[in-house]
Specification:
about 170 residues; alpha+beta; Beta-Lactamase; 5-stranded antiparallel beta sheet
Length: about 170
């Protein structure tokens, strides 16, 4: 695969019974994808395996959300997040992602599982607006302060909505 994928602005809508599954190693390289992942993203298995999972990262996704997600799972916790992904042809699709660490018998993290499903439209509407604000804050803050700016806005949104933490905030949508 060559070049940068240019977003088209077209959305692919998942069906209620679409479940996208992938597994990565601890560095985020894909080691498994299911057929739904390939069908919806438009990538073949050979284009996905051993590639960074961010191959499907949409430029409309704030870096702060991925930092939060990685902080949760690297600490051995599961994480839920609304994510806008990029298809090979530039289209996009929204998912409610459930990411969990995979442990070996010694209790060490050896990788991560991600199961993604269709989100409700109310959540997509809310998070698309929130993510636009986060991206703007990241751009205005500059590279060094981008994650701090984005994280502060995430914390503010959680607090303003009256939730104790990010996970309860996500699961309320």
């Amino acid at each position: 695969m060559k070049g940068i994928i240019v977003p088209t602005g077209r959305e692919v809508l998942l069906k209620n019974d679409d479940f996208i599954v992938s597994k990565t190693d601890t560095k985020g390289r894909i080691v498994y994808v299911n057929r739904e992942f390939m069908r919806i993203s438009g990538f073949s298995e050979s284009e996905l395996l051993d590639r960074q999972h961010n191959i499907i990262r949409h430029p409309g996704m704030p870096r702060g959300i991925f930092k939060l997600l990685w902080d949760f799972i690297a600490a051995g916790n599961e994480c839920f997040a609304y994510v806008k992904n990029l298809c090979k042809n530039g289209d996009h699709y929204w998912v409610l992602a459930h990411v969990t660490p995979d442990f070996n018998k010694q209790g060490e993290i050896i990788g991560f599982f991600s199961v993604r499903r269709k989100p409700n439209q109310h959540a997509v509407d809310y998070f698309s607006q929130l993510y636009e604000k986060l991206i703007k804050a990241e751009q205005e803050a500059g590279t060094r302060r981008a994650l701090a700016a984005s994280s502060a806005l995430i914390d503010q949104a959680v607090e303003e909505q009256g939730f104790e933490n990010y996970q309860s905030f996500i699961l309320s949508r």
